[in-house]
Task: inverse folding
């Protein structure tokens, strides 16, 4: 149980393109979804937290107009990297949690490796 | 403020050896939760264990065991009889009740098990 699907797993595109990444909880309803960014050989950096039906909460330093997050349903959240540039190249990982409680583990997707040429 | 420290950046062991991954945390909250995740080369994070701050019982699951000690703010992870499939990056993480219920990750320990 607690499967999170993330799509696509890899994206290579030209600078200036907008890229949408989907995160779906397959067998549970996710009250809260999270988006992380991970640079090579580094830890996960939380970008934003989204709750179904409300605006995402962005971490300090993350541009909300650059990284658009939509949590339209209890099973789907999307991250759109708008007008992507080479510095946006990274590994993006989503996670989902069944409730807002801090005691609940986050279940992670397989990640999306984004490469901007 | 929440902080998780994994001082060991990389560890290499020979197959069948035991290995302990260290995790030290800081929090002002009295109720908090500790987690371990495994990230194999393929990239996905796999949830391994959750521990509540009010439950200091150690836990064993197969070859995995966890030692939680509030007195030293540590939550160490031991793999016995390591196998090549254990090679991965292991992250310790902390969350607590409060304004933010987010996970705070350590920097991870890269474990390489040599056949």
Result:
């Amino acid at each position: 149980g607690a499967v999170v699907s993330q799509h696509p797993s890899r994206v290579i595109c030209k600078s200036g393109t907008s890229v949408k990444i989907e995160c779906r909880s397959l067998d549970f309803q996710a009250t809260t979804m999270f988006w992380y960014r991970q640079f090579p050989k580094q830890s996960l950096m939380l970008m934003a937290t989204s709750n179904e039906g409300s605006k995402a909460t962005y971490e300090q330093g993350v541009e909300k107009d650059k990284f658009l997050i939509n949590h339209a349903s209890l099973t789907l959240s999307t991250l759109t990297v708008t007008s992507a540039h080479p510095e946006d190249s990274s590994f993006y990982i989503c996670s989902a949690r069944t409730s807002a409680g801090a005691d609940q583990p986050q279940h992670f997707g397989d990640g999306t490796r984004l490469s901007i040429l | 403020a929440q902080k998780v420290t994994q001082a060991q950046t990389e560890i290499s062991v020979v197959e069948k050896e035991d290995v302990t991954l260290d995790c030290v945390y800081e929090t002002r909250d009295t109720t908090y939760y500790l987690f371990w995740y495994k990230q194999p080369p393929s990239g996905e994070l796999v949830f391994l264990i959750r521990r509540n701050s009010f439950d200091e019982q150690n836990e064993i699951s197969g070859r995995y065991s966890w030692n939680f000690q509030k007195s030293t703010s540590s939550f160490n992870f031991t793999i016995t009889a390591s196998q090549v499939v254990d090679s991965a990056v292991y992250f310790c993480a902390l969350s607590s009740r409060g304004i933010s219920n987010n996970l705070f990750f350590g920097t991870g320990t890269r474990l390489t098990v040599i056949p």
In short: The first strand of chain A starts at residue 4 and ends at 7. The two ends of chain A are 37 Å apart (CA to CA).
